[in-house]
Amino acid sequence: MLDWLNPVKGFGVTFHTMFKKVPTVNYPEEVRPTAPRFHGRHQLNRWPDGLEKCIGCELCAWACPADAIYVEGGDNTEDSRFSPGERYGRVYQINYLRCILCGLCVEACPTRALTMTNEYEIADDERESLIWTKEQLLAPLLEGMEAPPHPMRLGETEEDYYRQGPAFARSAPGGTGADGKADR
Amino acid sequence: MGIEEKLPSGILLTTVEQIAGLVRKSSMWPATFGLACCAIEMMSAGGPHYDIARYGMEKFGATPRQADLMIVAGRVSQKMAPVLRQIYDQMPEPKWVIAMGVCASSGGMFNNYAIVQGVDHIVPVDMYLPGCPPRPEMLFDAVLKLHDKVQNTKLGAHRRREIEEEEERKLRRQLPYPVYAATEHSEGVGR
């Protein structure tokens, strides 16, 4: 009987939709946070005194299924110390054109030097600039950290450094403490 | 310059290049080239939660003749390579290419005889997008960076000079990894 109204009913649907909540996220203006454990780009962490955690063991490079990581270790000397212990990662490169962000390198890292951040905006128009070097990957120096090379600040011996270092840094005036993001 | 000050208010001066850039970037229709898992993310980028139509990419078609942007999403096998090239050749100028995902960008983890090691062996790529697969936000990030690039593209003789300068720069570029002076512990850098 009211069949002639059917074409108008269609506009009713349109009208209803106008008042529905829009699920679209306006990406560049409003960024939805990722999951906290999202596999974004990598970060090379530091000890609370600023020394690098990477010891140049290349386990990450060996674990990498895409052969995206290149590490070259170097020896620490008394004059120039970049990490506690004998060795440090002198050259560290991650090729983001190969990296599949699987996180096997993070699992392989024995010192928790390599972790992943939630950053993901790394598109680029050059292949060369997508090979990230150590300077780009290193975590920024937090308050209380000192740019290497410098001697170990968190204890006399290496055992002191590893066992009591974090507590020492926490108690030190101006120290950031080891509970920060850089030391998880 | 002088002419801007003499104009009445409400008149905006710009260059032909800027207008061409604005027009080109505001309605850049993509040709999908979904080859693998990245295509799933590309499809979700077209869905309501991400909505790629917000960037003027309303028509996400499979026809190359009405497309300006080719999103190569996924690994390109050797057998697919000529097909990809043909589709690229069918697109009208001006055209751009996004290599979406590590497989399209460099072969990714598939370093073997079956996969083309980077789609830039076949077509010129304007934007490399890492990730496996990249989430839709990463695709948008690449699209917006490409928009910036298109907006600032020059025309005619300026464009030719720009290309020459870029070529010169790339030939004389500093490599991203520093080549260290040989010490007793280093045998050289690079694989």
From TrEMBL, chain A:
Its EC number is 7.1.1.-. Its cofactor is [4Fe-4S] cluster. [4Fe-4S] cluster 2 binds at C64, C99, C102, C105. SUPFAM superfamilies: 4Fe-4S ferredoxins (SSF54862). Binds 2 [4Fe-4S] clusters per subunit. It comes from the Bacteria. It is a peripheral membrane protein. GO terms for biological process: aerobic respiration. [4Fe-4S] cluster 1 binds at C54, C57, C60, C109. One of its GO terms (cellular component) is plasma membrane. NDH-1 is composed of 14 different subunits. Subunits NuoA, H, J, K, L, M, N constitute the membrane sector of the complex. Belongs to the complex I 23 kDa subunit family. This is NADH-quinone oxidoreductase subunit I. It comes from Streptomonospora mangrovi. The lineage of its organism: Bacteria, Bacillati, Actinomycetota, Actinomycetes, Streptosporangiales. The gene is nuoI.
TrEMBL record, chain B:
It is found in: Cell membrane. It catalyses: a quinone + NADH + 5 H(+)(in) = a quinol + NAD(+) + 4 H(+)(out). Residues 37-146 form the NADH:ubiquinone oxidoreductase-like 20kDa subunit domain. Transmembrane segments: none annotated. GO terms for molecular function: 4 iron, 4 sulfur cluster binding; iron ion binding; NADH dehydrogenase (quinone) (non-electrogenic) activity; NADH dehydrogenase (ubiquinone) activity; quinone binding. It is a peripheral membrane protein. NDH-1 shuttles electrons from NADH, via FMN and iron-sulfur (Fe-S) centers, to quinones in the respiratory chain. The immediate electron acceptor for the enzyme in this species is believed to be a menaquinone. Couples the redox reaction to proton translocation (for every two electrons transferred, four hydrogen ions are translocated across the cytoplasmic membrane), and thus conserves the redox energy in a proton gradient. This is NADH-quinone oxidoreductase subunit B. It comes from Streptomonospora mangrovi.
